[in-house]
Amino acid sequence: MFIESIKKFGAAPEQLCTKEIQAAIDACASSGGGEVIIEDGRYITGTLFLHSYVTLVIRENAVLRASGNGEDYPDFDTYWGKENAPRKTARCLVYAEDCEHIAITGGGTIDCSGSAFCEPYEDTGIRFWRRITDKLPARMIFFYNCRNVSVRDITMLEMAGGWAYWINGCDFVTVDRIRILCNPHYPNSDGVHINCCSDVTVSNSTINCGDDAIILRANNKTMQKKRSCSRISVTNCTLSSQSNAIRIGWTNDGLIENCTFSNLVVTDSWYGISIEFPKKPEQPFTDQGDDFTEVRNLLFDNIILSRISTSPIQILAYPYNQVKSIEHISFRGLISDSRQLPVFRVEKGVRVSDISLSDCEFTSDDISALRFENISRVHMQNVTFGCRDD
């Protein structure tokens, strides 16, 4: 089995090493697979392409740092049609397509160089950050149509204007013991985005980011054939987000089913758990699908939600979306401290049924505002509500 340090291919710390690291990956793949070792220093790179049976090992004493030059992230052509991807680009830091048995591991760090792509500005006295270029990795790690994928023991820092992980159309994926840590005000800094996948586990991880922390979607625009998002498990994680800690679905997704979220701690987030199909925007979203949406058989179990700025749970669906049904959604063992109570509001004509809450405690500023609009069969058992002391 091939096991070789990128140094053997000429990579040197504090220098742009895209060609040298890629040469090591290519040599590993040509030898039948193995490990490409990044160790002893900080190595700067643009886009890298993984191949089947290759493991990228970033040691604890190493940092893979994203180049701050947007020209180092080519907008390469794809057979699946990058014009159908969010932001209509394929730019990324690490890309794997149609691969199997691939991994990124080793205990080291991926530094995404966020401040190179964003700048601060103020609006009504509030400080925000915005992208200053479109030539940036819209995703840091991007897996497309891959099987048997593993990401373990990796810390990712400072994504800006791009998602940490886009796992798109993949099967049998393990994400374990990762950390995602970035400036919470960076734009579009999503955590783990899982789209049209099956048999994915995210566990024992910490995700603190500016945009949605965990996302499940079934947007088939980039798929070669229709796929659902199913058999997803998220467990033993801590989440924080300036948007949604957990987001399920978006405009005109397909089928999302049979997923569990358990043993989670959610803090300092705008929303806790969001199943949202939004109102019609002024211009179409760049990441909307074209399917009829079904969401069913989701379990949220044993979750602490603390310092939630709005609602701990929201289920929203508006006519702009092609939502057929949202059903059999269970919330069990939730302890929540938030400004608002859960919100369950859908327009007439959307079938939403069998929403269950059991053994839950909700503390908020206003306990009179719990709403269930146009929802049939709401089941509540041992659910308590209380006002916050402050």
Task: Explain how this protein is built.
It is built from one helix and 32 strands. Helix content is 3%, strand content 54%. It is globular. Helix 1 links the parallel strand 1 and strand 2 (34-38). The protein has 390 residues and is mainly beta. The protein has one domain (2-387): Pectate Lyase C-like. It has a 19-stranded parallel sheet that branches. The longest helix has 13 residues, at 18-30.
Write the layout of secondary structure elements.
Blueprint: E1 2-5, H1 18-30, E2 34-38, E3 41-45, E4 48-49, E5 54-58, E6 62-66, E7 92-97, E8 100-105, E9 109-111, E10 118-123, E11 126-131, E12 139-144, E13 147-152, E14 155-157, E15 163-168, E16 171-176, E17 179-181, E18 192-195, E19 198-203, E20 206-209, E21 214-217, E22 229-241, E23 244-248, E24 255-269, E25 271-277, E26 293-308, E27 313-317, E28 323-338, E29 343-346, E30 351-364, E31 371-373, E32 376-387
Parallel strand pairs: 1-2, 2-5, 3-6, 4-7, 5-8, 6-9, 7-12, 8-13, 9-14, 12-15, 13-16, 14-17, 15-18, 16-19, 17-20, 18-21, 19-22, 20-22, 21-23, 22-24, 23-25, 24-26, 25-27, 26-28, 27-29, 28-30, 29-31, 30-32
Antiparallel strand pairs: 10-11
Question: What's the short version?
Answer:
The protein contains 1 helix and 32 strands.
